[in-house]
Amino acid sequence: MNDLVEKARAGNARAVARLISLVESGSDNELREAAKLLKAPGRARVVGLTGSPGVGKSTTTAALVKALRARGDRVGVLAVDPSSPFTGGALLGDRVRMQDHALDDGVFIRSMATRGHLGGLSWAVPQALRVLDAAGFDVVLVETVGVGQAEVDVRALADTTVVLLAPGMGDGVQAAKAGILEIADVFVVNKADRDGAQSTVRDLRNMISLGGAAWRPPVVPTVAVRDEGIGDLVKALDDHARHLSETGEGRARRLARARDEITAVALRALRDRFGDPASDLRLYRLAQDVLDGLADPYTAADNVIAEL
Amino acid sequence: MNDLVEKARAGNARAVARLISLVESGSDNELREAAKLLKAPGRARVVGLTGSPGVGKSTTTAALVKALRARGDRVGVLAVDPSSPFTGGALLGDRVRMQDHALDDGVFIRSMATRGHLGGLSWAVPQALRVLDAAGFDVVLVETVGVGQAEVDVRALADTTVVLLAPGMGDGVQAAKAGILEIADVFVVNKADRDGAQSTVRDLRNMISLGGAAWRPPVVPTVAVRDEGIGDLVKALDDHARHLSETGEGRARRLARARDEITAVALRALRDRFGDPASDLRLYRLAQDVLDGLADPYTAADNVIAEL
Asked: TM segments (chains A, B) (predicted)?
């Protein structure tokens, strides 16, 4: 384990991959050992990219990787797919799109998927971020499906959240007004060469100008498939990073993130205790009582907690 | 509260609705009181209906309600929508389709939605089932979007799980072979008047015949919009209920369900404790330590648990 962590910290891609697998499979003792050895300096900037299917998240992610690499950043990508028990895992289309970077050891790409168990992805992704941080990545891009559809709340994970839209979704924008303004630090209107792009950009800017927050999310038009506007997006991300640092907002977000992570780890540890043989037998007996009308689930739960 | 529970047990729809709202909003003390007062006899059969968008879940649910009402069953419907922070709640299209039953007090229909918080729907739905059971419903239909896309695992909730398919999704069936056979107690091929329906039915039956389980899921072709095949579906549900009862499988499933519920209630109670002011301050300090590299999340979590 020492050796593995040492290699990961030196940026060895295979070691990073093995540590993330460990985080996903979640063998508890190894994990604790790894977590204690990993020094996550909190240097990596975490950028969440979210939006409905079809807006071009993966293409934009690939273009961003290229632009960030061009200036020397080491870039990690976590593609967080919704759980799919039918396929048993993530669709790896994003990997195909990323094959330009397959031989570049300054890029690490990983698809994460889970079957939706309590504490699944919402627990594994922060741990994977720690691994990538410890391994010295400058930026980690976390790509998720639309907010609320994913098990993972990207806002809670990211320093900067990018919401992607595409033209022709104008009605959706109208409907979503309230929610969308809260979520995004940066908007991208991708496929900006299509009809309606200008009005989508204009609508968004109008909506944003109504807000009075310290940070007004910029709206960046892009055509990611041709790398257009990606320089502007990188600049917007840098601007937001500066804002986070200057206002203390960045530290506040990371504190909240660390707190969530501790809570998740604690809840998982407690849940695991319910699974040990003695607790399991007790739970089984309590379940019988509930089924037979001798107890209600609350009283039974109090009983479980008292025995912890 | 006594009065409310009394009325719900007498089948008063407004009282049932208020109790379910209470369950959704989750004010803890009231909830405990209600749970203790509610005697859930475990008489209600819980039937989960799941399938991709567009296969006709809501139409089939509405047709089932009609058929079950015709023989005198009291029927509850819980429509469990995926969380949507953009809309802030469930789309109530299903209610519109259900308006035939709006004046029938033998039918209770409810859309449930949440914003995806830990323990949200996965915690509220079992409680709502208890309310409906206590209120004397004979059957409760739980309609969810495709397995794995929903926050709620319908298999873990239902006595009988119905998987709906529609013709022209043959490739999906092929791809999904492994998973789909495990999930379904009954298959419905809806829109059976369309091209390809017969081959979908045939493919499914061939797949099922390979299995060696005690229960072979029947495949029921329906055209729900015209009530065709719904009688066969009711029969298939009854057959499965008999199988559950005769083999003891029903009791085993309900035991597992009760156990999950107790665990969920216990975890929720523990999580709530993290939110009290003293714990909150402690978590905040631990989060600072994690951020400053003085502790890892595991050690911090151990600390939290020790203080509980």
From this structure: none
